[in-house]
Amino acid sequence: MASYGSLALKHDSFEALNAVSELPKEMIAKLKFYSSEKMFASIEKMIQEARIARGDIEKQYTLYYRCAQLSDLIRKRSDFEKFKADHGPIFGLRFKESLDEADNLKAILNKKYEEKMLRSSQAAAAAEIRAPKAVADENVPDQVTRLASSVLISPKELVRMVEQAQPKKTAVIVDYRKDKSELINYKNDHVITVVKVPFDLITHGLIFASLRNQLEVGQRPLLHRIGSCDLVVLMGDTSIELRNGHPVHGSPAHLLSLALYEYNHDNHPKARPLFMDGGFDNWRDQYPMYTKIDGTLKRLEPRDQLDHMVSNYKKACLMLDYPDLSPQKPRPQEPPRLPPHANGAPKVNGFAETPNHLIKPEPKGKPEVVNGAKPKQVETTFSASNSAISTASIRKGEVSPVPRPNDVPRPEVEERITATIVAPAAAQPPPPPQKPAGISANAAPLPNIPPRPSHMRSPPPEHGDGPPVASGFHPSVTVGPTPPPRLPMVDRSNKPQVTEEFTAHIIKPDSAQTRHAAKTNALQPRLPLPDRSTKPVLMSIDQGQQLLDIYNSMFVSTSTEGSSSRRGNPRPGCTGLYNMGNTCFMNATLQALFHTPYMLTIFSKENFMSRVNPHNKMGTSGVISAVFSAMMDVIWSGQYTAIKPQRFLQLFASEVNGCLADGHQHDASEFQLFLLDALHEDTNQVTKRVSFEQNYKGGSHILNDAKDYEKKSRLFSCSPVNKIFNLQTVSELSCSACGEQSATFEEASFISVELPVHATRTSLQQCLSSHFSQTILDGDCRWNCPRCRAPKRASRMTKLWSLPPVVVVHLKRFSMENGDYAKNTMPVDFDPSRLDLSEYLHENSPEIAEPYRLYAVTNHYGRLNSGHYTALVCHSTTGDWLKFDDESVSSSSANGINTSEAYMLYYKRA
């Protein structure tokens, strides 16, 4: 294999080089009188010369190209058969070497000529700017044209580069228009990916991390592709306004470009973003066949009862209750009825007031009875520390306390809000159990879910004589064929105002005591109001029942999907997932998440409803959490050897991203991003997001910066999913000219590390060391220093600031080459028993780096478009390693991990 150097190029384009590489016509005419053996000797000589010409790739290409031409002439000669008998094998090798090397050099030269053209245009633009004003005035049109051409790209140029260029390019179009009623619909979304960015999100101080977290869950993983594609193109409605060949400072195009390129560490683009010439209007005019009307608001007609449940539930979540602002008429007050003074009641205003335990409230009407069920007295409790909501039946005045999972990391008790609703009691027998709506009488019964192992269950209550109460359900509630409805938090938005009629029987203090208390309170400082921006919106009883019906229907459809689900008695957690046609990427990822210990305590029937925020418009209102919890409970029921997750995939496609159900193979890491984002937004307890800018200096101020970021980020998002997976990094920039510093905090659900190119083997520690090493920003990547007010050479150092209970490492084995995915199968060595991240922590971080140990691996075999995923998982109860290959589950060991095929590594604190 030849070595390709990087000497100065003599030609300006590949076409020019190809023209001089052709054999002259005069030489071809002379070769007719040469024998094949003599021509072959010339080929051998030129190949040796090409091998020696290392560093001059243009000369190498010319020599190999001419060798291929001579070989083709020999092949067409009349004496070729005789020549082939004597020199056939060696001739074939030389012919193949010439063709292969010429093709490889062609791809490299095309890229280098493009880079040379870009540098030339930038140099010419800079020279024009530095030219005297008189000369510049004469050439303003030409100068602007050259500058504009370096940042603009037309739709035809873009399509030509992804379809015809050698090598073929890939692109991400960032659509930031206000009106997105029409969209780009290119035939291959892996070649041209379109990311929809709401125009309102583009503000001053925008960085990549905050932009990503404010996108819809179906768009966030797509934005990550800007780090692996060749071109990033920003698209508005029409052409952007340019000043000196660049977007106007402070314009939406300029702010978005800064966020995607300068303030982006983990998914940094290969080159600065370009801007679509003419915007979407130009694209629509040139490629109407690649344009469609936005159909996201058009839902498919429900196909079964589960679809009807989801549709009705989503409609209920969209319905808003507005307060009645009309003046209320005062209610007529009845004269108080005075009982005898002998009852010992205190006097108020000269009259004896009746104690409230003797007053019989007037009936307002019969209590509402649902399905013959008696209304209960219910206590609803919310704990802001872990967002746990518990509903317990009150019996004999005793309330069982809310259990707290013992394995949830670092609980922080902030507030507890308790409200009690009292309904009239009547001596009625308990209602007969009923099936959830939409489940036919002939459907298979719901299997009983056995108790989970002790390390997965919440601890028992610390006090109380009654039986323990699980989070969200009374102990009498079991997952059987007749699950009763769960009563979630009660919506008190329509609670009537308390008037004198209802407070007339309350014992009032003496007026002198009242005046003294008021005077005392006036002298005391007023207590600050608590911040309730992260207080979850109360879920109505109807919404809770609908969400529970979705869970139950999903449980039934998953465990009885056709005849594919196989009943049996496997160990809990050892249930396989059928492949439904290139869905192994989903199956392997789900198995790893099903065996993530902290996920078990959140996504189950007992707990998931207490975590869901149905009014978060960024998520799925709890639909994905419900179906994921149903899958989790089926897997850990120990009653099925394999199940078919078809309904899960269909709902995931309709609620999150439809491309994942197209029957093609997909990236497992991208699917995990989609799923975790959906679960995070479903359980995000922040009801009113507060965006903020990161104007941090770092250095000696880093601790105060981190505290401020932690405080403000909690007002933007806070979910149990993020607490499990999200690690926090800090990137510090330092200007080499003036020493100005800047710090930016970012969060991510896994670490994506590059694999070395020129090596035969590496280790995880080497990949992490390279990922968290210092980077010099120079050339096109220079930092716009706020003090120098100009692009300057700078250094960037990224370190870990805080660590979650679970750390996922993504080995970036795939890259786009010539319009297709290429895989790096380099072995990556790692220790399954220990991962130490202490050396990658920031020196000022208060985090104590505890060691981690491996508990799951997803492997990939073959190519991305035609490969296969499997998962190796350490069972959380027995510690045995299991191999999940779709529906097949078999025993394995940590020694069975293939370091050449390992793709996602899952670690938990040891």
Automatic annotation (TrEMBL):
Broadest EC class assigned to this enzyme: hydrolase
Residue span, USP domain: 575-910
E.C. numbers: 3.4.19.12
MF term (GO), any: cysteine-type deubiquitinase activity
Keywords, sorted A to Z: Hydrolase, Protease, Thiol protease, Ubl conjugation pathway
Biased composition, class Pro residues, residue ranges: 329-339, 447-459
SUPFAM superfamilies in the cross-refs: Cysteine proteinases, Rhodanese/Cell cycle control phosphatase, USP8 N-terminal domain-like
Keyword Acyltransferase listed: no
InterPro entries: Papain-like_cys_pep_sf, Peptidase_C19_UCH, Rhodanese-like_dom_sf, Ub_carboxyl-term_hydrolase, USP, USP8_dimer, USP_CS
Chain intervals for the UniProt region annotation (Disordered): 324-345, 385-410, 424-490
GO biological process assignments: protein deubiquitination; proteolysis
Gene3D superfamilies: Cysteine proteinases, Phosphotransferase system, lactose/cellobiose-type IIA subunit, Rhodanese-like domain
Pfam families for the chain: UCH, USP8_dimer
Catalytic activity of the protein: Thiol-dependent hydrolysis of ester, thioester, amide, peptide and isopeptide bonds formed by the C-terminal Gly of ubiquitin (a 76-residue protein attached to proteins as an intracellular targeting signal)
Similarity remark: Belongs to the peptidase C19 family.
The protein's name in its UniProt record: Ubiquitin carboxyl-terminal hydrolase
Organism classification: Eukaryota, Metazoa, Ecdysozoa, Nematoda, Chromadorea
